[in-house]
Amino acid sequence: MIRVAFPTSAAAIPRSISTAVSENIPKNQEEDVRKVWRNADAVCFDVDSTVCQDEGIDELAAYLGVGEAVANVTRTAMNGNARFRDALAARLQVMKPNNEQLEQFVNITKPKLTIGIRELVSRLHARGTHVYLVSGGFRRLILPVAELLGIEKSRIYANEILFDKQGNYHGFDTSELTSDSGSKDVGKPAVIALLKKKFHYKTVVMVGDGATDAEAAPPADAFIGFGGNVIREGVKARAKWYVTDFDVLRKDLEHDDSSDDE
Hints:
Elements: E1 3-5, H1 15-23, H2 27-38, E2 42-45, H3 47-51, H4 56-63, H5 67-79, H6 84-95, H7 99-108, H8 117-126, E3 130-138, H9 139-149, E4 156-159, E5 161-163, E6 169-172, H10 187-199, E7 204-208, H11 211-214, E8 222-226, E9 230-232, H12 233-238, E10 241-243, H13 246-252
Parallel strand pairs: 1-9, 2-3, 2-7, 3-4, 7-8, 8-10
Antiparallel strand pairs: 5-6
């Protein structure tokens, strides 16, 4: 079942307006994104509510018995337009997972992959396209996801929870690019800029369900909005191409661009 997430901040786009904007995006803009998608050197996927059906931090909070408390903190942070890093710190402060708890959670929890993502990633790999997981979530929770999808550990960009010598919670690594958002110098835009500079990719595509994914383009050459698990109206309005099924992306890779020029 697809969830519809309505805006919770004053800056968010009202549903009536965002729906109209999404429906009025010119078809040629969507086709431009499709062409970039079919010729991408690298594709970056968000993880929570995109590659996976759920939100990792919410699942971990529930496991720790503080699910509702963390949800309240998240709600308060969003309503106050808090920066991503501050909201993340506030949620972790409520959770305070120790290393043993984190490892136990990972060991008993099987990633809930979104339908079609295995086949899509496999197809991209077969084409020689480099696939990355870029998330504001936690690397330890994403490692099993990457393993299931055959994605190298080095192609994960996510946050790192820190522990002291006794294994107690000791904050998170603020030097990680994904530990903040809101400008081109941090978050997913900064990750993609780094990838382009480091590996000389000509074309990089970002796929995701959230606002932090949408803000990645530019420097990403295209953003594809994904609503297969939750539809965020503001994101849908910004996306030039919005899909709710990964099979749509996989099948589009079979399109022959040369036929368009005939």
